[in-house]
What we know:
The first copy, chain A, is built from 15 helices and 22 strands. Chain A is of the alpha/beta class.
Amino acid sequence: MNEALSKKIYIEFPCPTEDDNRSDKARVLDGLEEQGISARIPLHTLRELHRLSEDGDWKWTISLSWNGDFWEVVRVEEGNHENEHYGVALDLGSTTVVARLLHMGTGECLAETSAYNHQIAFGTDILTRIFYCKDRPDHLGELRDATLDSIREVMDQLEELSETSREDWISMVISGNTTMIHFLLEMDPFCVFHTPYAVGVTAPGFLSGRELGLSIQGNVFCVPGKSNYLGGDIISGMIATGIPQSEEIQVFFDIGTNGELVIGNKEFLLCGAGAAGPALEGGVVTTGMRASEGAVEGVRIRGGKIFCDVIGGGSARGICGSGIIDLIAELYLNEWVDFKGTFNPEKSSRIHEQNGRCGVEYAPGLMFWQEDMEEFLRTKSAAVTMVEYLLRESGIPKSEIAKFHVAGAFGKHVSVESAVTIGMYPDLERERLCNAGNSSLEGAAEILLHKETLDELDKIIDNMVYIQFGAVEDFVHMMAAAQAIPHTDLEQYPSVQKKRLEYRNFQEEKF
Amino acid sequence: MNEALSKKIYIEFPCPTEDDNRSDKARVLDGLEEQGISARIPLHTLRELHRLSEDGDWKWTISLSWNGDFWEVVRVEEGNHENEHYGVALDLGSTTVVARLLHMGTGECLAETSAYNHQIAFGTDILTRIFYCKDRPDHLGELRDATLDSIREVMDQLEELSETSREDWISMVISGNTTMIHFLLEMDPFCVFHTPYAVGVTAPGFLSGRELGLSIQGNVFCVPGKSNYLGGDIISGMIATGIPQSEEIQVFFDIGTNGELVIGNKEFLLCGAGAAGPALEGGVVTTGMRASEGAVEGVRIRGGKIFCDVIGGGSARGICGSGIIDLIAELYLNEWVDFKGTFNPEKSSRIHEQNGRCGVEYAPGLMFWQEDMEEFLRTKSAAVTMVEYLLRESGIPKSEIAKFHVAGAFGKHVSVESAVTIGMYPDLERERLCNAGNSSLEGAAEILLHKETLDELDKIIDNMVYIQFGAVEDFVHMMAAAQAIPHTDLEQYPSVQKKRLEYRNFQEEKF
């Protein structure tokens, strides 16, 4: 039988008589035992049920929340309310917090919403936030409060959207990286980025909503992580993609400021993580910006002209990750840059030279410089080399990858074709290249609805073998090769070769 | 190996390295596992140990508190502090709270102290307090606060007396009757005295000190009771006397406002409880008072003169329970009253008649009236009949009682000889009549020091068979017989018969 992390059960208990005057506590526990449920009753619920017992008819709905060891009776209601039974799955991202309210009986999603992580006030990048807290317990408290405020904000939204009562929200699952979980628990996350990388906690397990300061009746489960860089969000991704049960080999790649990677199937799981660099999110590029209003998010070059898709439809203010990848792909296919990313000013009047440096004016007044290109290609190369290295370690040719999942915002917004063209994604049949969506949230929801997943989590973490990229001697050589567009080993990118030829023929026909 | 309800263990954990960068949580749990201890770490301790881990050398003393299911890590200290390890045993009486601080390693008692239960402000007798709370959650809160204040008062005293730090107090055991436990947990105890006598809780088990509002690092165990009238104090008495392990048959009798009784050995345990009435504590008697300054606590009649022992040594203001029992015994032995308790004014000029009623002036201006005598004998009879009835039910002659334990203040202060003379205690060899002392406190201490006692508690409660006295048809007849001094069946009191003859001969010789 499928069991979720919470239950609501309507029981008609026998009313007390002089012949059967068990205590309220014993009566409830016995009634649950008859349903095959071994439970505990915390003090606050014991008080509640004793109040109800005084005049009640003992026809009660019992809410139970799993705490990792046993079921806790967290609420008692008069009458049958089995159907008013909800739970919250939450992705605690460093930028965005996304939450979903689920009906725990049907699994139906009643509402989904998101909010910026209030931690941003203390720094857009994680390291700034971490240094803000170093040796400052008061600052750590501020970050914890910011985290809780963000979660409370989405919970308020969920309540409004779903028109449910928060008293019926029994359990919650939070998925986030190791740093986010440390902030949530008010534990200094300096350890996450500092040798020897022994963090405070990777598996906090179940915590009571009260203890955490969240208005959940029962317990909050934090999805366990593997290590400092491979947090609960990645393990959630494993649950969401089903890779650890798969016969075929699959790749899971979460690319952002950091890149986290898992390659494997039901027999093995290799994983690694490394700094991919903020370039992928538009961070380091001169005119780079986050994917918000005014950002160029898509680029095409047709007939020597550059066409941009701008978020919000107004004039361009800068370029975000997906825009950059499109831009580089189009520059390459149109041969405005060569395989090293070097601009060829003869190819277009849009390629300018200023103070001895080249660049393309991709939108009026906005330049993408040679250094931007190089920075970005280094970052791309770091990300791609993680995949190549892990594949080589496991002796698996790219052709055997049944699915290549890209998680997070990157997977959602980037053009698959452009990502293959620049060599960011492997050149596989396109249906094998999957957008994993918010797999952190999906995994959290899966765990919330399926208690048996908890055992799976432990197995996944045990089976994962972490590969330290920094320790790899020839990593640097591999990176150099991956810095080319799409790669020095063009054989690996047949579709890109073909497409480039098509572009060339098209251009030649035209002129 | 003897295990207590708490542990303090010094462990030198391996320091984190890049090759062994387990999380702080995993490192501590693994270290404990190596010592054979399966534990959990609550959030507040996790934070504490993470703070220590930042610069520490990982040579830590771990404090563990048993919570009924597993060991909880409740404190982490730098260095070896295994020896600074204490626990509190507490008897939560309706009049007095008595507590003892124990060294958990040696079992040594470092301090013992008591205080009046602050609940007294809401009524000296329990029923007044219960009615004060009926349907008034705010009043119930006041009683809870009064209970906690009483406990805090003795804890403050213990800290001062023992010169220990409260941070080293890891676990606590509280023993009290069912009403006291309900007040402690802020649960309405009306159920204790009201049909169908299904109380809120008889076995609250382990509660965290924080949750209860007591400054104990770990958990507080409330000794479980059998039913409404047979609370944890009586079950503690079983642990203290060892009756449930005994080959021989023993009787445990706790006499106060209510009488609670257990008869049995390792094979059976019959128990019962009934209202003994406040008369035994001096409550109903006209000049009765509690055993405090000015109370007559001992009486002898020699040569026609009454000699009184007065608490504090000043002039008498009234008479308490032990004084009354002495007085009645002496009146009977000197034949100032007959076996029915009827005064014979011819026997002494101290026997006065006023407004058609007789009484004895036991101290200047203080009278003990015929009605007082009758009230007291009714009460005595109720108490004695419980014993007789249970013995008859089990088919056991009095002579087979190896030990007759009398618990509480009654057992401590009353003269055994006088109690036998008036028929309150059975006429057994005097060494079989034992003062059980504060067996509620003794049992609590025993449980605190011996974790294996927890299993015993469950067995004791399961084995106990509760006999409802009210339901017994011929109980009334038995009571009538027990109302005499010492009893209508004089054969049962050979030593009393003998003593009365001695007194008569002595008197006759004298005059």
